[in-house]
Structure formats: structure tokens, C-alpha cells
Amino acid sequence: MAVTSQQLSSSLATLIETLRERLGAAQVLTGDDVASRQVDWLSRASCRAAAIVRPGTPEQVAEVLALCHQARQPIVTHGGLTGLVHGAEAAPDELALSLERLAAIEEIDPVAGTITVQAGAPLQKVQEAAREVGMQFALDLGARGSCSIGGNIATNAGGNRVIRYGMMRQQVLGLEAVLADGQVISAMSPMLKNNAGYDLKQLFIGSEGTLGVVTRAVLKLQPALGDTRTALVACPDFTSMTSLLTHLRDSLGGSLAAFEAMWQNHFALITEQERHQPPLDADAPYYALVESLANDEDHHRQQFEAALEASVEQGWVVDAVIAQSESQRDKLWAIRDDIEGLVEALSPIMAFDVSLPIGEMQDYVAEVQARLEARWPQMRLAVFGHLGDGNLHLSVGVGSDDPDTRHEVEGCLYEPLARVKGSISAEHGIGLEKRDWLSISRSPEELALMATLKRTLDPHGLLNRHKVVPWTAPQT
Amino acid sequence: MAVTSQQLSSSLATLIETLRERLGAAQVLTGDDVASRQVDWLSRASCRAAAIVRPGTPEQVAEVLALCHQARQPIVTHGGLTGLVHGAEAAPDELALSLERLAAIEEIDPVAGTITVQAGAPLQKVQEAAREVGMQFALDLGARGSCSIGGNIATNAGGNRVIRYGMMRQQVLGLEAVLADGQVISAMSPMLKNNAGYDLKQLFIGSEGTLGVVTRAVLKLQPALGDTRTALVACPDFTSMTSLLTHLRDSLGGSLAAFEAMWQNHFALITEQERHQPPLDADAPYYALVESLANDEDHHRQQFEAALEASVEQGWVVDAVIAQSESQRDKLWAIRDDIEGLVEALSPIMAFDVSLPIGEMQDYVAEVQARLEARWPQMRLAVFGHLGDGNLHLSVGVGSDDPDTRHEVEGCLYEPLARVKGSISAEHGIGLEKRDWLSISRSPEELALMATLKRTLDPHGLLNRHKVVPWTAPQT
């Protein structure tokens, strides 16, 4: 028997009442308190959920999920709301489960190199806690002030230092997650090595909240490295840029921490804006912002400069500027990080995040450009990315972003990935936005296994329904 | 209806005949060709499987598994047979599926830093292939010449360099696995970053062949580092040893690649044997073999020596020898690696592999020793381990290793782990040997979720039945 919207409304109202009783009225937001929250950073769309529920402890998360399970009530988990693929969107008959009150740092152990945190803790708070004990937390991305550790885990966040430290998955030693029925899976192992049975935490990392709600985690800390060397270089062609990457990776002995490539279209588009003072002329086809982290200032400076000099001699680099101060470093990064400048220049912008083998990148970008130009001769394209990770971010402006246009643009970007075994999502995830393109990157057998896992762990489709894996109501 | 052993025999014989037809008679071994294979390195137990099946391609693996699925025939997958937890044992009514003919290195890409290999390739072959293109494959362990990449993946192997490069899981970019029904899950992504849906490969890494058979993988390579610095040091107490670890981790700027701790009982037991020339007196309570990898000889030597000198000044190190040549380095490692010496001295030996927070180690070892001594006053215990990974290897000799004694010794070692959230297996896995102790390290909810995954992916229990997760025949 299908549930009618009338029945749902009434049972949902009862559930909301119960949640108010359990958590306190102030922790269940409705009306304007819901609508005033933006769930999408780019579109600024408002939250449409029936209510926002804010448990204050992991135990309360379990209680909320058990109640929702009883009522067969779908929920959408909210972290810092900085995602880019509509992962936080909720329908009017869904509840949003916000982990904002679960923000404690529970423990930090500098000898073991671990930190134990609740899922709602902002990334920056974790980074600062690590610094206070003389260590560092390796994940870093632009949204650090707002994004939450739980969201970083659920989306397997990437960011600026993947080439050196890996993605969020590599930083997680243990975690605790609540299943759709309210059962708590506590896999809070603090050890680097633990082969006692299946590594269940992997199920919850990168599955975007569709298999469980992450409530706590034990994260790995890294030794702090006091000396940062940063340079912006211009390369005469793509092969030179990849030679530079290989050379720095090998000659810096593992210290290379960022290799942010910018195609001319990106570099020119940003540096022509008034707020930047272009540190290099914009006439080279490729630019790279490179950064190395070590802890021995004199030797590291010599090593970094020698590696760049050798690259100039080889002809891989035709122009370069090395940051001589923290403020110069900030200015170089401001070019790479100026997402608002991109949004402004390409409005309405469409932002893509793909990965593919480095050897295929040049042809891929040329093909995308040709496809887009053939359809929209006035289109603008800006390409940058974490070259060492095989990750490109493409920003496109074609003058419109209505759904049909968007779908056509997506086709231009995603279809050429199939041939090169590329991924339609390097780091942003799938959410709602990319779900229907997943077959570009995943085989029918993989998609079937994903659906099997979803059905097994969340048979009623209560957790982030419709995200990542399609949902159809079971036949009754 | 239950299958009787008579029926099974006859259907198994038919299946073996079919397999001979499909793969060629030479690829299905029976009789002495089976019994002459050792499936257990320590006990030298023989293979008892009804036959050993040797497919030559990933497609043939899928074909074999589809035929076994049709016949509801359980199989045990064999890699290099170097495991230590009875993971390769097969019952007389089971088939062994050996991947020894799937040993090709399919592709190597030094720019992307990837290598594509078949599961049966020995680890050492992969290491050598990486060296030939000027890179390195990071996983390294004593069994390198025999163990296979597929086995390394299935068991999430650890080894000597985890502190620097992580476990096998961190080296795997993509993989292909065959499910129990013969379906192929091809997740051969070559990219460092890929968030396009659930990361299915994680299911097959470390699950010891119970959820699928790994056939191929794309592995990550690391920059080769030309300069290795190695030292053996003596520490006056446990706190000094952990201070040394923290100091080296921080001051070597990420170059520390091994920190192998040896308790006096281990160091003395090995160095008192004639074939070693003790490089240090055996009167200190703790020893550590430390190694650092970098690519800048002069600076690295200075850095390494300065770090050790500072440790002597701090009193963390009371005696030290730095290897001055490759042959001196080999001699230092020979002490740490002398498993045969251990086996000889403690025969019949029982070998354990646990992990726990570093801060708990000293008390843990003392408690284990007290428990063992209370029961077997003449017992001998030798403790060494990868301190930076929280991983201890304890070797015990009590004069007998019959099943009851073994169980009692296991209790002495495993029970104290529960309190400190330790793991009964840091790197060896669970197999048959540790399965019934899993509840020490995993909660009932975790064990239930593991069983759910097993039931979902392998409903008939055909893959490494009884290993890791208990198997009971479904009610009919």
C-alpha cells in the first residue's frame, strides 16, 4: 500500500513532535529557521526540509535515526553545507539532520599522532588543535572554515595536498557511524595497522551519507613542517609541465605538496581582474603553482631553488616567481583560489571536477573546448587542477544554466571521459548532480553492486535518498 | 535438502572433469601434485584440497568461479602461500584456486606513477619493475620473493615501511575482482582521486578473499629515494624509545621509513646465536632499528647523524651504531629479520601480531609476560615490532603447541587487548587462526555487519568459507 502525502504529513508532524520532546524544542527548527539556511553554496538555494533536527551527542543521533526508522522517515544529513553536487538538498517531506552541535574535539595524542573528533567539528578547528600540539592535520581545502570533518569523511574530501598526504580516506584511522535503523557501528580504532576483520569504516568514507551517518572519528596527524616554499611558473607546453611535475616529485624527495596547474584561459581570466597584480605575463599556455613542505629552512630553500633552476635550464619553465614572504605566497595562492572571480567572470557558471590519466589531459581539454565552441561560439572555459592527482576543475560559462543547457554542457564534458577511463568526480562526489552520469565512469556490474550495498545497509532508502544511487520505492 | 558427502563427491568429480576440459588437464592438479604443496609456512602443513585449479587469465578465473557457483562448490584462493593465519587451508571437499599463472606485469607508467599487474605477480617482481623505470613500489616485507600482489591486497599487507608509506590499501588505485557467482567487478581506475560513487575496491582489500577474488590491480608507485641511512640504537627505558620515535619523525621531515623496536628478550635471544656478531651489548632494555630514506646524500647523512646525536644528548639513546655500508646495513636488518632464529630458539613457536596504542605497550607486554610466567615458569617470550605503527610481534615458546595449550597462550595475549582497544591482528589477518577471538577487537554490531556483507556478496559461502567470518549452512 502506498503512503499518501496526507498520511505522511500527519505521521511526519507526530515524529517532529516526538523529536522536540526528546531533544528539546530549540533543537528542532522549522519554518523560517529552515528556509533561511542555504544548502547550496553556488546557487544559494534554501533548505526545503520539513524540519532541521540538531542532536547534541552521538547517542542522540542514534536515537533520532531509530525514531526515523520506525516512522520510515527519510532524512538528509547536513555537515558544513559546502558541497557542490546538491548532496544536502532535502525534499519538503524529508528531515535534515544537522551535526552542527557535534563539534567537540574529544582527545588529542601527539605521541601516537592521533586526534579524536566529533563529526560536526569544522576542519579548521581540527587543523588548529593539531598545530597547538606541534603537529599538523594534513587535509586542507578552501572551505576549511565552514566544512565539517563528517562531511570531509562522507565525501572523501581532497583539496590542495593530496599529492603529498592523500585524500581524507588516508587520514581516517577509525570512525563511528549510525546505520539507518539507529544501530551504532563503533570502529574507533586509533591504530595505523588493524587487520582484524573487514575494514568497515571504508563503507562510510566517500559514500556521501547514503550508508550511514558518521558521528565521530579518530584521525591521523602528521609531523608539522615549518618551511614552505612556493613558486608560480610558466611552462611553454603541456609536456614541459608534466616533465616539471616528475622532476619536482623526484628531486624534492617527497616534499612536493602541491602542483596546481592552470591553463592560460584560467590564468588570464583571473589575472585580468583588477584585484590581482599579475606576477607573470599571461602569454604562456600553462602555469603551475608549486609548493614544497619541509622542516629544514636553508637546505630546503636551496633544494627548491635548484630544482626550479634545473627546470629553467631544461626549458620546462620559461618564467618563474618564487614567493619571498608569506604575503607573496598568499598573493600567488589568491590567483589559484579565486573561485569568486571565476563565478563573476563566467556567470552563470557551471563548475566541473573530473579526473583522468595525466597523459590524456591535453587531448581531453582540447576536445571539450572544441565541443563547447561548436555549440556556443561565445562560450568561456577556464581550466585548472591538481595535476599530480590527475584532477582537473573546468569552469564553463555559456550564457545560461537552465536544465537543458546544463545537460548539454555536461555531455560535452563527461562523454569524452568514457574513452580514457576518466572519472566524472575526482573530489566533489556525486550527490544528485552527477548521479545520472555515473555510467560514464562505472560499469553496470559496479552500479549493480553499489545498489546492492545500498539496499543491504539501508533497505528503506532513508539516508540521503536519491543521492549517488537511484531510489525506487519497493513494490508493495 | 542437505547435500550428502556421496553426492558432493560425485558432483565434485564432474566439476573437476569440466574444469580440465576448459583449462586443459595440466592446469587442474590432483593427488601428489596437491599434497606436495605446503599451505602453511610455519607448520609446513600440506594442501588437502580435492584439486588445485590454475586459470591462466582473469577471464578464466571468472569462468572457474561461475562453474563453481553453479555447482555450489566452495573454493580457497591461493596466492604465494606465505600467510601465517591458516588462510590458505582447504578441506578435502574444497578446491584450491591458484593464481600463480596470473603473474604478468601488464603496464607501467612512470609519468603517472602507476603499474598495472595481475594478482599472481610476486611482490619482488613488481618492486624490480618499478626500479627499472627509476621509481619504487613502497610495500616491502620479508616474504617479498614468494608473496603475491593479490595476497598482499587480500590481506592488506603491512611490512617494514608502513610508517612512511602506509599499508597495501594505500598503494592500490584500482582493482578487478571476481564475485562468488563469476561476475567481474572491474574498478581499474588509474587515478589518485576518484569519488564517482562507492569505492568498491575497499571491499576486497583486507577481506582475505572472502568477498571476491582479486585478479588485477593498478598500483601507485613512489619516487625512488637513493640514500638510505640505518642505525641500531639502545634505549634506557620505554619512554626514551617513544621520545626517540617522536623526535626522528619530526626532525627528519617525513623521511623516517622504519622504526623497528626490539625488547631485550628479542635482541638477546637473536644475538646470542652464533651466526650474528652483536653490534651492541645486549644489556639495554630496548633496542630500535631506525631507517630513513631521502635522495640527497650529504644533507641526509648530516640530518640523520644530527638527529641521533641530539637523542644521545637527551639521554634517549645510550649506545648506537650507524651502518657505514650496505653490508653493515644488511647485518643490522638480519637481526630484526631473523625469524628462523626465533623459530629455532622457541620451538615449537607461537607467533602473534597485535596492535595497540603506543602509550599502552609497556604495560601490555608486562601483563602478557606475567600471565605467561604464572602458567609456564620456563616460558620464553620475544617481543619486537613496528613501533611507529603501534604493531607488536610477540613470539612465545612454552614447550608445546597442542591446541589446548595454544588456546591458553592466545588468551594470555589477546584478553589484555580488550581493555586498551587493541587489535588481535595488526597485519597478518584473521584466517582461521584468529576468527574465534575477533570479538576481542570488534563489537557485536561490527561482527553482525561483517556477516551481513559476507551473506550479501557470497550467499552460498563459496569463497574461503569459515575464514574471517563464521559459516553455518543455511536452514533448508
TrEMBL record, chains A, B:
InterPro entries: FAD-bd_oxidored_4_C, FAD-bd_PCMH, FAD-bd_PCMH-like_sf, FAD-bd_PCMH_sub2, FAD-linked_Oxase-like_C, FAD-oxidored/transferase_4, Oxid_FAD_bind_N, Vanillyl_alc_oxidase_C-sub2. Keywords: FAD, Flavoprotein, Oxidoreductase. PROSITE patterns: FAD_PCMH (PS51387). The keyword Flavoprotein applies. It comes from the Bacteria. Coiled coil: none annotated. Residues 45-224 form the FAD-binding PCMH-type domain. The keyword RNA-binding does not apply. Belongs to the FAD-binding oxidoreductase/transferase type 4 family. This is FAD-binding oxidoreductase. It comes from Halomonas litopenaei.
